[in-house]
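Colleagues,

For the teaching module next term, I've prepared a clean inverse folding example: a structure given as tokens, and then the sequence designed for it. I'd like students to try predicting residues themselves before seeing the answer, so please don't circulate the second half yet.
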């Protein structure tokens, strides 16, 4: 199920393009036939904004929205699916994509061998540990790195989309600004540790620690105007220069995120993610399988008339010589393949078999019964005392019909037919 969520989008333009994806949980394909509306504000019951209501057609939906807070409401879903909770999102002119998720950061001081000379392996992770930790890099080099992983000091970070404007504001002494700063950092991380898009690690035969170290140095070159060549070997310097001067294309779906601490004593952090920018994802799960499995049920009967038993599949044939003042007729039914714990109307008909083979109804008995835990068991149907003719043959027919509809005939998750046995 998709629980209620809140997102903040931002743009440096008056309007921003927002994309809505509605997938089916099992196949992860776009769902068709769900209806939506977008309302202004946070009240899902509000009227839709003009033009912002639609029925999903299996494709991602796009809208350009002005600054403000909106709520995406799934009004209805195709049969067999659970309706998703509303999602509130905000379009702001001053940042980018911001979720309400909080993050914690920590530094691993001894992850790499001493000879790699790198003790600032920094990671970010959501505070609830719902997702794996991610590699991040620090900027504003004069401030402190996050506490060590086992430290009692905890610093909480907000994740913000790293727009050119916001990044320039948060970098204390950047070498370049605006789009050039953002794109330079995206390219450094894309080509650096751990993505290694250009194969620099192998080209210069770097260890994991060395490669991560020069990636951090390349970040500082752009964010802090600090090239920092001290204590680097020649191959590390050569690798760093290639990382800084690379001009390869950056994937369109690679976005920069900034992580800003709740304590300004600590450095800001940055990392990248491959996502579709400004995409709200909504997922619909299928209803649990509440449709009962209905088999071909069977009734096997044993009729007792004046102490004489007769039985066969769905019928019982009885003959006797002495009717006295009438005989007691009782039908015992063994059933299988019914739906457990469901109620059925059980009907039995006592029929006289004439010499020509035709049937004459003698008595009918109907009662409500309940199937056992496993859909099998025994019922009794008592016809009482019947005036039967000596030497004649009689047959009993039974029919069990469920009180409720138990069968989904057209596979639309609606029970529309009773089970009849």
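(Answer key — instructors only)
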């Amino acid at each position: 199920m998709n629980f209620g969520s809140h997102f903040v989008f931002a743009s440096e333009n008056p309007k921003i393009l927002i994309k809505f994806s509605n997938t089916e949980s099992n196949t992860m394909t776009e769902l068709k036939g769900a209806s939506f509306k977008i309302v202004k504000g946070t009240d899902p019951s509000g009227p839709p904004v003009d033009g912002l209501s639609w029925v999903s057609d299996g494709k991602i939906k796009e809208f350009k929205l002005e600054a403000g807070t909106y709520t995406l409401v799934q009004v209805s879903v195709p049969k067999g699916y659970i309706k998703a909770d509303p999602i509130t999102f905000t379009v702001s002119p001053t940042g980018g994509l911001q979720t309400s998720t909080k993050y914690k950061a920590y530094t691993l001081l001894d992850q790499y061998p001493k000879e790699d000379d790198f003790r600032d392996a920094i990671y970010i992770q959501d505070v609830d540990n719902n997702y794996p930790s991610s590699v991040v890099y620090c900027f504003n080099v004069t401030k402190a790195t996050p506490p060590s992983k086992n430290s009692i000091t905890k610093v909480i970070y907000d994740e913000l989309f790293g727009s050119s404007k916001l990044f320039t504001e948060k970098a204390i002494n950047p070498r370049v600004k605006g789009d050039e700063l953002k794109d330079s950092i995206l390219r450094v991380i894309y080509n650096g540790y751990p993505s290694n898009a250009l194969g620099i690690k192998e080209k210069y035969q770097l260890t994991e620690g060395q490669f991560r170290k020069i990636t951090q140095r390349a970040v500082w070159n752009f964010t802090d105007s600090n090239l920092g060549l001290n204590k680097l070997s020649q191959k590390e310097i050569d690798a760093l220069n290639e990382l800084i001067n690379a001009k390869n294309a950056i994937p369109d779906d690679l976005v920069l995120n900034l992580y800003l601490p709740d304590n300004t004593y600590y450095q800001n952090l940055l990392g990248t993610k491959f996502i579709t920018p400004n995409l709200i994802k909504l997922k619909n799960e299928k209803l649990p399988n509440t449709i009962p499995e209905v088999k071909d049920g069977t009734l096997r009967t044993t009729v007792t008339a004046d102490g004489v038993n007769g039985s066969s599949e769905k019928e019982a044939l009885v003959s006797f010589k002495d009717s006295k003042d009438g005989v007691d007729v009782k039908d015992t039914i063994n059933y299988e393949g019914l739906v457990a714990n469901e109620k059925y109307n059980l009907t039995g008909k006592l029929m006289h078999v004439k010499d020509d083979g035709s049937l004459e109804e003698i008595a009918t008995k109907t009662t409500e019964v309940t199937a056992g835990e496993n859909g099998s068991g025994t019922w009794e149907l008592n016809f009482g005392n019947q005036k039967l003719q000596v030497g004649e043959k009689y047959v009993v027919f039974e029919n069990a019909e469920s009180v409720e509809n138990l069968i989904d005939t057209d596979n639309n998750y609606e029970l529309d037919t009773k089970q009849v046995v």
